[in-house]
Amino acid sequence: MSQVVGFVGAGRMGEPMVYRLVAAGHRVRVYARRDSVRERLRARGATVVDSIAEAVSSADIAILCLFSDAQLVEVLGGPDGVFAAARRDTIVVSHTTGTVTTVTGLAAGNPGGPTLLDGPVSGSADDIAAGKLTVLLGGAAAAVARARPVLESYASTIITTGALGTALSVKLVNNALFAANAQMAAAALELGKRLGIGEEQLLDALAVSSGRSFAAGSIGRTGGLVKFEQVVAPFLRKDVAACRSATADLGIDFGRLGAVIDGGPFDLS
What we know:
Elements lengths: L3 E5 L5 H10 L3 E5 L3 H9 L3 E3 L2 H5 L4 E4 L4 H8 L5 H4 L5 E4 L5 H9 L6 E4 L2 E2 L2 H5 L3 E6 L2 H11 L3 E8 L3 H29 L4 H9 L6 H9 L2 H7 L1 H17 L5 H9 L6
Parallel strand pairs: 1-2, 1-4, 2-3, 4-5, 5-6, 8-9
Antiparallel strand pairs: 7-8
């Protein structure tokens, strides 16, 4: 069933989400700042508006694809933010990988208003374009059920995790494990170099051997260690910092994952 979808955050990941939503027949109202992005979105059939309030005021589902907690707080709060502008029955899905306390605090500060779900994602812009993204979804069961058909426009796998905040917890553990795996893969490539094995040759061998991992494959697909550190490491730093913050809030030791992340070749501090 066609829904009115308000969308904020049409960046590298958000823009292909909008395309998939439009292609699925949803009426998408999107707020974007850059003129070039606005032109592309309009050409693909989205209604481009000039404020967050305009994007979400008539939305059945509001989707926020933002980079950080700070952006999420800014977009949701304030007199012109999502909580103020959206209908009380609107479902708000946050794709931001941030901290659990931020999301639960925002929801607690807005009782009776739009229902907030945490929906961190796993995958790339290419996965979104192919409709193969993975979305983790936490929050009230009825709201999750309403959001699911819309998110299926770009997600082939939607995993419900329980109460609000649990999806972020799952994603943060996943990201910490990926960061640790990336550090181990990088260490393996450094060992291979000392043994006289070329980086490309070792990655090709690992891809079809028992030492293969998604992290090693990502390094290969990105173009090697140097390129991987340039492109992916900034996102890993943000995710690792969020995981450390989340565990610290709960008084939980980051444990061996933290030791591996801190001891690897990449600077993820």
